[in-house]
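In this section we walk through a basic example: taking a raw amino acid sequence and producing a predicted 3D structure, encoded as discrete structure tokens. The instruction is simple. Fold the sequence below.
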Amino acid sequence: MDVLFIHQNFPAQFIHVARALERMPDIRAAVVTDMKNEQPDFLPNARYRWEAKKAGSTDQLSTNFAIRVSRGRMAGKAMAALRKRGFNPAVVFGHLGWGETLFVKDVFPDARLVVHAEFFYTPEGADVGFDPEFIGDWGLEKRFELRAKNAAILSAMNDADVAVAPTKWQASRFPAYFQSKLAIIHEGIDTRSIRPNPAAVFRIPGNSLVLGSNDEVITFVNRNLEPYRGYHIFMRALPAILAERPRAQVVIVGDAGVSYGPAPSDGRSWKEIFLAEVRDRLPLDRVHFVSQIPFVDFVSLMQVSSAHVYLTYPFVLSWSVLQAMSAGAPVIASRTAPVVEVIDDGITGILVDFFAVEELAEKVIDMLAHPDDYRAMREAARRSVVERYDLDDVCLPRWLELIDPRA
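The resulting token sequence is shown next.
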């Protein structure tokens, strides 16, 4: 059986299922991806060349759709090249957000199309307008923008045979008439390798400091340090935390770019802006920005963490919060969707209001001061991840069922 993956930044969300198929002798898997994708080539691939500047539009609202149609066209040509070489997939996996699946059914009309349904934009109840500090110009034009942004997503959903969302809340964002297509399957957490290790240590890059389980370690992890993931709230809580806990060390993982939402208008990064806001009240020798780190080091960091803070707008759930729980790190998280779906307050983690800077500081201080009080919570958190999100026993089998639902 031929199976095709389409993703501009493959393997992305499909890494686990792709690795599994690679080991199956009766499966021939291939990938369509962007020429600029620097990920290792562990599957045969066809690459397309795409440039945003060639996909513009005279109307700003239609630019988003034009860009995705352009990318879809290039992906479609790459698919056609695969077809000429005799590759005819029974199943195609793709992400609906980039436009790459828009022409799958034209190239492979008989293929079963499975799309990763990560997010559907709405003017209420999610990320848009959530943070009053960054609402900006909120009005009718913003609603137009969101509807236009959903155009390619709706087209992709229409063609999909199955749409997979990682959480119930993310699935619920999609229109009612698509709910029958939606399956709720998380990508999966490798709980066998991401597990507690009392002997773990984390070495601060470029620093002689080595942190272990006997140290007070506060951790905060994002791909990019930005408001969508509560970086500003975390930084505003740090002065009070570090004043109260003179032994605590803070490790902040993340780059200075933007993954979600707008960039600052003054040319600076969000990282720089919110560090500058509290810099004079921080012992900077105990605050360590380490950018991105290898995954093995991330796991070690979670294993030594005394308090892991995860904050997010109501938006896409990060893998890192479940990985932290699997590694045994005690988690303090925002009481926002879909976090409330994966953390039971007081049982598997501590939930605080996203904007409650003082409450966040108090919870972190208490967690550092009374670690034994949170031992049962850490154990319950890991059990929850193993039972609900384990890669091999829970999530991957359900992903593989999508290839042949009759099996």
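Looking at the output, two observations stand out. The chain has a mean pLDDT of 94. The longest helix spans residues 60-84. In the next section we compare this with other chains.
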